[in-house]
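tl;dr need the bound structure. longer version: we got a ligand (magnesium ion) that a collaborator sent over and nobodys looked at where it sits. i said id run it. heres the input, straight from their email, havent touched it
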Amino acid sequence: MEKKKRTICIDFDGVLHDYSNGFEKDVFGEMIPGADIATKVLKNAGNTIIIYTTRPATDALKNWLKDHNIVYDYINENPDQPKDSEGCKIMADIYIDDRNITFHGTWDKWFLHTIGEFKPWAKPKKDLKKDMEQGYKEGDIWRMGQEKRTHHGDLSCG
Ligand SMILES: [Mg+2]
């Protein structure tokens, strides 16, 4: 059976490129490994790829995507969107984002806990630097690292 062709919105920051150069207009970090191959595979499977980002679709952004062989159809628009769906949200079957929590149909305390504990996987380097400096000031950078590992363990059990 042929797989359904879907529209897939893919975030840019923290999904296609990392935050290694911070967040400024037309300043980008390194491509996240595999982003080029993954978008090519998804496109070759017949899906529509939309880059869905808070960034404007500047020439610099388009050049970065081209230089890194990111395969896509549109940036911040879905021309196939029905006219009665003209809100700000772009219509898609799947949204891939580093700041997303999947809703599974239940607003329970575990879901609220997940929201409360949520952190994107990547932070701008300057934030990491600030965290490190804070750790050194407090003199317990090693203990902070330990807490992080414990924290991840808690999440995987929850
Ligand atoms: Mg992002």
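gonna send this back to them w/ a short note. The radius of gyration is 19 Å.
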